[in-house]
Design brief:
By secondary structure, this protein is mainly alpha-helical. It is built from nine helices and no strands. The radius of gyration is 19 Å and the shape is elongated. It folds into two domains: 58 residues, Orthogonal Bundle (Arc Repressor Mutant, subunit A), CATH 1.10.10.60; 116 residues, no CATH class.
Length: 200
């Protein structure tokens, strides 16, 4: 298992050490999946003993995995620009492009998010669903001036966001190289969802 190279923590900074364990775990779980990760490999990369992982994460591998998913999901949520001073015509294409970059790569955090979205584990799925909800709230703020849009708008945006995930995945799997067309398609779907729910 290849792991990300993280600077080793010193003994005086336990919070940094905990963060490094989660950072390394995020990459490891994304690359190898839950069954393919061994705590001793993560411990070695950070420069600690496997027993120390259990000190920080009493639930062991399962708890460390959940924390890695939480970090991945938080980072994805943080990509969304909700700065009210930026015109929506600039902000929307940039926001969509960021998420398509994640999905098309796919990045480690995107892999963990997507797997968690489809997981039978309720804690993992809850993290992924919260990411969708937080992004939808940000989209509501950007387009409608509220983080709590009406239920029909929320449902439409929820479906449109799922379209983004699936369309990007198929684009990648089929090897389609016209990225500008994908960006334009996703923008059109998002705007159509908003327009349809806004009509009387």
């Amino acid at each position: 298992m290849a792991v990300v190279k993280a600077p080793r923590a010193n003994r005086a900074d336990p919070e940094l050490r905990r963060e490094q364990l989660i950072d390394v775990a995020l990459h490891a779980f994304a690359e190898s999946g839950f069954p393919g990760v061994e705590l001793k490999q993560i411990a070695a990369e950070v420069g600690v003993t496997p027993n120390l992982i259990h000190h920080y994460f009493p639930g062991g591998k399962t708890e460390l995995h959940l924390e890695a998913v939480r970090l991945a999901c938080a980072e994805l949520t943080g990509l969304l620009d909700t700065d009210a001073s930026v015109p929506i015509g600039e902000k929307m294409p940039r926001n969509i492009s960021k998420y398509l970059d994640e999905a098309l790569a796919p990045t480690d955090r995107w892999k963990l998010y997507v797997r968690s979205l489809r997981s039978a584990d309720e804690d993992l799925k809850a993290c992924a669903m919260k990411t969708r909800s937080d992004v939808l709230a940000g989209m509501g703020a950007n387009h409608l001036g509220t983080t709590s849009p009406p239920p029909e708008v929320r449902a439409a945006l929820f479906g449109a966001f799922g379209f983004v995930e699936d369309a990007a995945n198929e684009w990648r799997l089929l090897g389609i190289e016209d990225r500008a067309k994908l960006d334009a398609l996703v923008i059109a779907v998002m705007l159509a969802a908003l327009a349809a729910t806004a009509s009387d």
